[in-house]
């Protein structure tokens, strides 16, 4: 009986030690879990083929944006520098046109005041000579004003020629794809007309052979 009681007491002690060791291990594991979670490093996913293609397309689009921005920034700066001079010339042209308008109206009034029906027949030759001198004066004034207008028109044509020559950089800046689309838009009606004409001619020939 004493032996059985001793064995039972020893088993109880061993069971208590095992439970203490188990609880101590659980507490250590619980204390280590946050540290392990905190030390975890997230590995980025590998770059796929679609991602690489998208990045290349985005970089290409960005290059086009920078080139376009630099190009039009230069053009706008150039236009801003040239516009004041063009405005000054336009004002001068408008003033000259207004002066020519007033001068023509004045010359017309002078011409209408010459009335040959009221001349004195006794002094007809003198009246005629005076009228001829007045008309000659009007003619010279008219030629002087028209010469200024011709010069003004030539300046306008020269300015338009400069604008048309400025289209060359515009054309050169067009890409091959844009040029192909523009050419196709112009030539498409011609191509369709040729195809329809050939089709109509072929049908007419078939009907004639029958």
Outline the secondary-structure elements:
Elements (H helix, E strand, L loop, with lengths): L1 H37 L10 H64 L11 H42 L1 H6 L3 H34 L1
Helix pairs in contact: 2-3
Structural commentary:
The chain has about 210 residues and is mainly alpha-helical. Helix content is about 85%, strand content about 0%. The protein has five helices and no strands. Helix 2 packs antiparallel against helix 3 (about 125-165). It starts with a helix and ends with a helix.
Summarize the structure.
The chain has 210 residues and is an all-alpha fold. The chain has helices at residues 2-38, 49-112, 124-165, 167-172, 176-209. 87% of the residues lie in helices and 0% in strands.
Structure annotation, total helices: 5
What is the molecular shape?
A: elongated
Which series of helices and strands comes N to C? Answer: HHHHH
Residues in β-strands, percent? under 5%
Q: Provide the low-confidence segments as ranges.
A: 32-36
Beta-strand segment tally: 0
Q: Biggest sheet: strands, sense, closure?
A: none
Structural class, please?
mainly alpha
Portion of residues in helices? over 70%
> Would you tell me the overall average pLDDT?
75
Distance between the termini: 133 Å
Radius of gyration: 50 Å
């Amino acid at each position: 009986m004493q032996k059985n009681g001793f064995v039972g007491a020893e088993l109880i002690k061993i069971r208590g030690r095992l439970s203490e060791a188990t609880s101590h291990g659980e507490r250590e594991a619980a204390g280590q879990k946050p540290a392990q979670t905190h030390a975890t490093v997230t590995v980025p996913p590998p770059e796929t083929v679609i991602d690489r293609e998208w990045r290349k397309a985005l970089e290409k689009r960005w290059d086009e944006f920078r080139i376009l921005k630099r190009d039009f920034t230069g053009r706008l700066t150039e236009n801003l520098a040239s516009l004041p001079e063009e405005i000054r010339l336009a004002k001068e042209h408008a003033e000259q046109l207004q002066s020519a308008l007033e001068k023509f109206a004045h010359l017309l009034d002078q011409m209408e005041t010459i009335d040959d029906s009221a001349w004195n027949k006794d002094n007809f030759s003198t009246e005629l000579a005076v009228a001829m001198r007045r008309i000659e004066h009007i003619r010279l004034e008219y030629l002087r004003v028209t010469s200024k207008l011709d010069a003004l028109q030539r300046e306008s044509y020269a300015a338009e020629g400069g604008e048309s020559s400025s289209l060359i950089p515009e054309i050169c800046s067009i890409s091959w794809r844009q040029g192909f689309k523009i050419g196709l838009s112009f030539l498409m009606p011609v191509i369709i007309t040729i195809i329809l004409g050939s089709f109509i001619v072929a049908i007419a020939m078939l009907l004639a052979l029958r």
